[in-house]
Amino acid sequence: MKKKSILSLIISSLVIGLVGCGGSSYKSDAAATAPAYAEEEAAEYYSDDLYEFNEADFEAMKEAGEGSENVEVSENTNRKIIKTVNINAETEEFDTFISTVSAKVDSLGGYLESTDISGRSFRDDSYLRYANLTARIPSKRLNDFVSHITENSNITNKSESAEDVTLNYADTEARISSLRTEQQRLNELMAQAQDIDTIITLEQRITEVRYEIESFESQLRTLDNKVDYSTVYLNVNEVRKYTPVVTEPQSFGQRVAEGFAESLSNVCEGVVDFIAELIIALPYIFVFIVFLAIIVLIAFLFIRILIRIIKKADEKSAKKRQEEIRKAEERHQKELKKAQEANVNTPVDNGENK
């Protein structure tokens, strides 16, 4: 029992040591205590050859200026550069331009990662279309694609960036190499292990190492994709007329002349747009007129019926008043006749009775 415990302790110490070597093999301060394979990897990792520019690259950087993002490193270097380009462009031929961009991406061996096109027509400024494209272009053909965009549209804004991920890439490779060595040692120990606890401990560590290797390899594949295929974010706006580029200050006369010409052009375009919108809206206008005519007809019939009802009511009321007047006159005639008869039957007072 004591022998098994000692064996388990030795194996656990060895595994911990291997883990420590795998996590610190790329650090210079741990190189003295790391195993021989870790020292070799650290030496390779910190080798100057990995980051060495040739003379042509250095001269190209000097000509482009300090901090330039457009320097192209020659193919024989081992640097890992992720290039990203943002372009805002204007076009007067929206459909044609989008088609040519898609065809150019295919011809260069790239692909469109995402496409978003909005808008409906070319009739009014509020309906002008726009597109947001994300293109992945092989890094070696990036300049060809940017030149195509520049030649076929009006560039209003362009920015480029380059991210050097060489250190991260080399660090990830060193980690994978250390983990593979550790995995091999663990497999050898697993083949010799006989104690259950030792086998369980080794299996757990082997699983962890395998997971870490897969994770780091996934990171390398992602970096390779970003390095091999540059990303271009292209925002395209449909315009009637390109935004003018002012290269030098304008005089007062030039400003007035250009402003007057632009105002006159806007007025003409406004008239044309109004006529076009009017013609386009004719079906709606016709339907509105028909609907309005129906409403007017219904209102006219309703008013006419209402007038008839009121007229009949007035006629009925007039007849009723006439009937009441006739009856009143008849009563008056009867009363008058009764009064006359009463006067006739009353004896005349001639003084005899006195």
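^ that was protein a. below is b, sequence first then the tokens
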Amino acid sequence: MEFQTGVKEKETLGIAQVLAGDYDGKTVRMNGAVHNIRDMGEVAFVILRKAEGLVQCVYEEGKSGFDLKDLKEESAVEATGMVAQEERAPHGFELRLRGIRVLSEPAEILPLAINKWKMNTSLETKLALRPVSLRNLRERAKFKIQEGIVRGFREFLFSQGFTEIHTPKIVARGAEGGANVFKLNYFNKKAELGQSPQFYKQTMVGVYDRVFEAAPVFRAEKHNTTRHLNEYISLDFEMGYIDSFEDVMAMETGFLKYTMELLRRDYAKELKLLGVQLPKLEKIPQVRFDKAKELVAEKYKRRIRNPFDLEPKEEVLIGRYFQEEYGSDFVFVTHYPSKKRPFYAMDDPQDERFTLSFDLLYKGLEITTGGQRIHDYNEILAKMEKRNMDPEEIKDYLMIFKYGMPPHGGLGIGLERLTMRLLDEQNVRETSLFPRDVTRLEP
């Protein structure tokens, strides 16, 4: 009888193990993909690509135990060689090859030159050939940084007493209302893909007080712009027993400060590779919605056309204004008009035309929407009545208020948009592994 007792220790080494151990002059085994072959004649460099980075291997004719002509780029191999210090090599060492075992090899030549520093091709080509283009060092570095953002979100919220939850994505109705939902036939019942975990995360505030989720949401918007996706990852949290919606903004500020420090510490290699300058985040200014419109209208000689919402150009100008006046890439825009916010948004008791809600703009792009929610049962019923909504249609959601809820609020952060702005990319598809938009369902 055989048994599994846990993770098996591998005989092959990773880059971190070589750097941490005393391997200089010793023969080791290392696996990876052949990223590049640079043939200099009697000597050649075989560059292995691993998750950790590149490893320079030196091939010497007659000494390395195989014929270089038999080796193909993108072959998966196990290389055997002697570790030697070399300052010019990635990570400061190289392998003097003594043999290579080919584990698999490609059937065809690559359609993209992924071993180049920059792939000289269009975004559409990169997306059509995504399984290949993501192997490029710069492309995959974007998503390591994105990993760091999600990791920062989780770590920070855990430190603040939040519980991670997982909510359904097949729902009976959308939380945000409107027509931008993907409809499903769910065993002959009408269903939709979730626009937001809003109803469920509010429900769970009544269970755990503070909850969060990092998961996909779906919007059937027919936009084909540089800032819209039909499926994206939303970083959501909801917190109970708040004093005001400013508690939610303060929590997001804390998350961003923590995450930027995490990226600076643990993702320096990727930041350097992409030339990313992390933003300064000592404090984030905040401004009322109506005041923000007035400020940019006055400074940039722009007429206010829509008093109830921000146009994309206005968001850009607000971002520009607070960068020029306060040196901040971020700004909280608060007190959005009630008619442009969902029914569950709490109205400002000082002026019910506005809500206790906010957006966070980063370099002129909205990356977050949040605010305080109505927690009183009679109050939410009254607001639904004003909007001609039928309480019976969301009776399960209303149950949480009927049986008591604390003052609470929360937000949703668009992960791809946040990554896009951090990396100074011009199209949100650049920061989605496999983007879904109005024209793309594959790969």
